[in-house]
Amino acid sequence: MTDVNRPPEDRIGGWTRLVTARPRLSLLLALIFTALAVVAGSGVADRMGSGGWEDPAAESAYATKALEKRFPASQPNLILLVDSGGKTVDDPAVAAEARALAKKLSHEEAVTGVTSYWTTGASSLRARDRGEAIIAARILGDESAAGKALERMAPHYRGAHGPVEVRVGGMVAVRHELQSTIQEDLLRAEMIALPITLVLLVMVFGSAVAALLPLGVGIIAILGTDAVLRGLTEFTDVSVFAQNLTTALGLGLAIDYALFIVRRFREELGRGAEKLPAVATTLRTAGRTVLFSALTVAASLAAMLVFPQYFLRSFAYAGIAVVLIAATAALVVLPAALILLGDRVNALDLTRLLRRGRPVRGGEPGAGWARLARLVMRRAPMFALATVAGLVALGLPFLRVEFGTADDRQLPKSAESHVVQQHIREGFPGGPGGAVEVLAEGGGTGTKALADYSAKISALPKVLRVDSPAGRFADGRRVAEPGPAEAARLAGGSAEITVQPKGEAVDAASQNLVRTIRAQEPSFTTSVTGTAAVLVDTKDSIADRLPWAAAIIVAVTLLLVFLLTGSVLIPIQAVLLNALSLTAMFGAVVWVFQDGHLSGPLSFTTSGDIETTLPVLMFCVAFGLSMDYGVFLLSRIKEEYDRTGDHQAAVEFGLRRTGGLITAAALILAVVMVGIGTSRVTNTKMLGLGIALAVLMDAMVVRGLLVPAVMKLTGRATWWAPGPLRRLHTRFGLSEGESAPAARQGGSGTEAAADIGTGAATDAAAGGGADGRRCGGKGGPHGEDGTHGEDGVQGEGEEARDRVSTGR
What we know:
- 59% of the residues lie in helices and 9% in strands.
- By secondary structure, the chain is of the alpha+beta class.
- It folds into three domains: 93 residues, Alpha-Beta Plaits; 399 residues, no CATH class; 81 residues, no CATH class.
- The strands form three sheets. Strands 7, 8, 9, 10, 11, 12 and 13 form a seven-stranded antiparallel β-sheet that branches. It has a five-stranded antiparallel β-sheet with strand order 2-3-1-5-4, with helices on both faces. Strands 6-14 form a two-stranded parallel sheet.
- The two termini are 35 Å apart.
- Belongs to the resistance-nodulation-cell division (RND) (TC 2.A.6) family. MmpL subfamily.
């Protein structure tokens, strides 16, 4: 049959011809791409960093680099915790062995600034009970080089040395353990998530062959993104944490997109369509919606590019890449596979064994969702108020959020670097890492000026002492004259001043101390760094750029949803309801991870705060995923409203047709995120479990209750737009079905120029839906609510009964 003789809904567009012309070649090219991606992406984790929370343009970043260059002993990133084995650290044998270790360490390549309790006598390097003391040093180089140097040196220092026992810690050890732990956890998460996901896909599709297709798309997306990230490491820093997002979104979105496309194709076959027209209709309907959804998710993730922290930027790199590769594979590779499979896509029906001997269930597919929609809309004010109140209540704990920095407590309690830092926190009077460091530069850095400045700083509340080239100061006066150690704090017209605060390194008092020190106006230029200063700068950086990121997300969402619906009100509703769906996630993050509830069952150590960049990351990811599901629901409602002009019936119809499928997709994505949440690293655990909760709340509560309630309350005004915007949507808007006038007049509509593009697609006669389902037509092998049923897709008679029941 030629294209001219085909009905409009079965005509073959240019995109379909392109991707199905040589399907075997397409699959071969996909296989070659995957193989090349494996090679190109190999070793990507070893080239990634485990930091990236700081703003590289901040004052603290400048001071850190300058101090590292001029006073390396002031910025130790390697700590050897020496246990005296039941004696004291002043025991002659213990002291002799410790000095020997310090001397050996000073001769290591790339190690500088070695200092210890036994060479300085500094009380901050000795435990209060005198049972432990510290040897501190700095390993030079970037994160990768420092990590490799540590890996080479650590075995020679760790363990027993005569009368002492040595543990290796410090920030370089923390980051090295974070990197190796994340790699191990990611492999375990994949081993957990993949088989469970495959079982769920078989349950949703019924067919093992169909269930394998989404996994294939996911594997292409994950491996392709690894190759992209490997390439980016040649030009910029990339966080190792981004690999977790690659796995989660690669599987989750690939499954979402393939779920809708494969389901639609099977339904087209069920109505008797040939393979090529079935693919054409699938790409014209579900394919267009997949493309639109991918753009909304990518836009949400792209907002993280406005932040200077490479931790956040890395998630944007990984997220955008994995979304676009997953969508491309779904729109290029899947059609080729479906053309070759044809009816065999339904092969290996494993659910037949479960149904053997059981009576066939009656009732319409999706009838439960239809009943829920009618119930919600009958009592729309009550459901809207109760749902909003419940979501707001779940989010209230976030009002007491405390922001902090990632440290060793991200690791399991048994991790060596965590043990070292915990001993320092609990047993030392103020060890390395907790001090506020001040770099003094320029004219006026004479001894008297430094003494006056140090005395003034030491008199501030919450200051334990100040160490400077002019001596040691406490309570506004000098308590120790300068010696050799103090003289080392002067170099080339610059001076290093260490302010030891009372209490925790990053508590509110320490942050206020940083601001107070920066407000001083000595006769020389000062730059302040240290853990508390980095946190202050990070919070300021996030706060400065957060409005821009939010503006990007809101603007792109409003534009894309308007292009989909042609409404002014629906895009605003989408933004507000999506944001509201995230309240439970943010409330749970504070209640669980900051307050420490469930820390035992979930096996993590609470630090009493939330890492500053995590809420931004979780918002961008969860918001994008919420829009993913919102697009499928709204496009189906919009198509039905255009076809019938009945607002309430369209809302009910959309929920009935998409409720089960969206829930199935959300459950599968939640399984993947929970797999990520089994990580032993707290931030990764928080990311996985938090987004899993957000996805489930959005799919089951917001889409099932709040959206129909709000759309009932807004009524036909939901679809209003001023004349100029209506004309804009008519020209550039995205649509799944015919326009309402054409449908009511019985016209055939205007054929789309291509399978995937702008304009109105003419599949109303075929009943094509935005979610890949058919309004009418012949029955098929599978139900439309995401479950496998004996009667299959709702047939013509069922569709007629539905029109009576909804008043159409």
